[in-house]
Each structure stands twice: as C-alpha cells, then as structure tokens.
Amino acid sequence: RPILKIGLSAPFTGWDEPLGYDVIHAVRLAVRERNQQGGAGGYLIELAALDDRNEPAEAVQQAKELAVDPDILGAVGGLDNACAQAAAPGYHQAGLALVTIAATAGQLTDQGYPEVFRLAARDEALGLAAAGFAVHTLQAKRLAVLSDAAEAGLATAFQAAARSAGGSLVYSGQVNRW
To answer: Distance (Å, rounded) from C-alpha 167 to C-alpha 163?
Structure first.
C-alpha cells in the first residue's frame, strides 16, 4: 500500500529527553491506531523522528532534513516556543505543515504561515485563565512569578491579567535552565 510520511522533531537527548520520549510514544501510538483502522485515505502512515534536543538551532536543522525528503507531508514538533518559532520559516519555505506540540507564543501563528498550527492555547489565554484561578478561585492577593526564559511570554501575560483581576505582584524573576 502507498505510504504517507510525517516527521517528528522532539528532544530525544538532553535536558528535555523525558518529554521527547512522551511525545514520540504518543505519536507512535496514534500512527499505529490509524494504520490499524486502514490508514488515511488508503495510505499507511510512516513516522520519521529526529532529535532536536529542544534547541532552536537543532530544530531548524531537523526542519531542513525533513524538508529534503519528498515523501514527508508535514511534521509535529516544537516542544517549546523557541524551537517552534525558529523552525517555522523552514517548514513554510518547504510547504510542509507544522503542528506544534506545546508552543504558546502568539508570534508563532501571527507570522502569517498558513502551514503552522498549534495544539496549545496562546500565552494570553493561558495567562488570563491562570490569573483568574489564582485571584478569584484561590483568592490570592499577593503573587510571585518565577519563570524560565522559554516561558517569558506566558509569565508576562499572567502578570498583566493578575494585576487586572486585582492581584498584587510582589516578585517577578527568571531562572536559567542550564
């Protein structure tokens, strides 16, 4: 039977390796279940998985590698904002669909690339929901925000929404992952 290939770019080594393996197991399960049901439009689905170590430069390289395979129709990838945003132009140039795993930055889909789709809500929506929960449900009045650089947009959205909801921000800081 004819085959459709999809790519996967996720961290299989490095700091985020456990998350990458969660992703590949989930994607493999979805592919296996779909193929057991007859595939997609008469085609079986095959997965090409590449390690991007959750590093933007590596995500760009993996997008290029997937783009040179004429059988690849699209990819799942971009475990965080930095990797998804770095790789999106490469997928766009190649005309490949990109479904981001967990990227939340609004800039990702504001670039005007019709091939880029997200599975997670935008920072603004997540920040609003989290701030509403903290201020209204938990009735927190004084809030501290600690984030890493990859989630700076989400932290900013949370802070703005928390202030609007009546919360007082007493501390805001960033940590380095490495």
So the answer is: 5
* Residue-level pLDDT at 178: 56
C-beta separation of 46 from 75 below 8 A: no
Backbone φ and ψ for 12, nearest 5 degrees, come out as: -110, -5
61, two tokens: 């390289």
CA distance linking residue 74 with residue 67, whole number of Å: 9
Give the whole-angstrom CA distance, residue 5 versus residue 120: 23
φ and ψ at residue 167, rounded to 5 degrees: -80, 155
Q: What is the pLDDT of residues 6-22, one digit of tens each?
A: 999 999 999 899 999 99
Q: How far apart are CA 15 and CA 98, in angstroms?
A: 23
pLDDT at 52 over 80: yes
Query: How many C-beta atoms lie closer than 10 Å to residue 26's C-beta?
Result: 13
Alpha helices in 95-173 (DSSP H): 106-110, 123-132, 152-164
Are 12 and 51 in contact, with CB atoms under 8 Å apart? yes
**Closest to 156 measured CA to CA, from 136, 178, 130, 177:** 130
pLDDT value for 2: 92
